From TrEMBL:
GO terms assigned for molecular function: hydrolase activity
Annotated Pfam families: Abhydrolase_2
Record's keyword annotation contains Amino-acid biosynthesis: no
Entries under InterPro entries matching the protein: AB_hydrolase_fold, LYPA1-2/EST-like, PLipase/COase/thioEstase
Protein name (record): Alpha/beta hydrolase
Record lineage: Bacteria, Pseudomonadati, Pseudomonadota, Betaproteobacteria, Burkholderiales
The species this protein was found in: Rugamonas fusca
Keyword presence, Nucleus: no
């Protein structure tokens, strides 16, 4: 059993009844999206525990083997080839351990949202599509479905009830919007309900996106 990942936990109110496990991108850390909590309009929502985990340190091939926080290795700029399936599955287990901790804290699966940016978005889908029940939602920012052929084979029928939010920049040089569109179309073909947004930005987050995230949270947590 691996050690539980380090996390930064922020509660919007005492005794939260919802958890959002929010995963950072390659080379970032748990602090990356902490400032966004203040930017989100949470008015009218139940108490939320935001859980920001730190991925473990590992050498990343595409960056010359430099050691950084990563959920899995990136071998080539073509994200669909030579994917690090082992790394994805190890990190999936670590995210599932965080879900189990929230269950132990009294928050059931259907009141947990998985969220992430870039690699964190890929981990949201890697983990969320394989859950034995419905999550409150999957929020996927500038990401894609990793090991898509395995996702087709391994996604669960129960997970199809989980609403998915996907947002992407049209000028993204890191995860091309075409890759995200392929993932969106695949999810729809599998029977998922996907809310899609795209913005005139690169590999980042914009203010309009924050507004859309707030609206989506209010919808799925109503």
């Amino acid at each position: 059993m691996s050690t539980l990942l380090q996390t930064i936990d922020i509660e919007s109110a005492p005794n939260p009844s919802v958890a959002i496990i929010w995963m950072h991108g390659l080379g970032a850390d748990a602090n990356d999206f902490v400032p966004m909590v203040r930017e989100l309009d949470l008015a009218g929502l139940p108490g939320i525990r935001f859980v920001f985990p730190n991925a473990e340190m590992m050498p990343v091939t595409i960056n010359g083997g430099y050691v950084m926080r990563a959920w899995y290795d990136i071998v080539a700029t073509d994200l669909g080839r030579h994917e690090d399936e082992k790394g994805l599955r190890v990190s999936q287990g670590q995210v599932e351990a965080l879900i189990a901790r929230e269950n132990a804290r009294g928050i059931p699966l259907e009141r947990i949202i998985l969220a992430g940016f870039s690699q964190g978005s890929a981990m949201t889908l890697q983990t969320g599509l394989r859950q034995p029940g419905k999550l409150a939602g999957m929020m996927c920012l500038s990401g894609y479905v990793p090991i898509a052929d395995k996702a087709i084979a391994e996604h669960t029928a129960a997970s199809k009830a989980t609403p998915i939010f996907m947002a992407h920049g049209r000028m993204d040089p890191v995860v091309p919007v075409a890759r995200a569109e392929q993932s969106r179309d695949l999810l729809k073909q599998l029977g998922y309900q996907v809310e899609w947004h795209e913005y005139p930005m690169q590999h980042s987050v914009c203010q309009e996106e924050v507004v859309h995230i707030s609206a989506w949270l209010k919808k799925v947590l109503a």
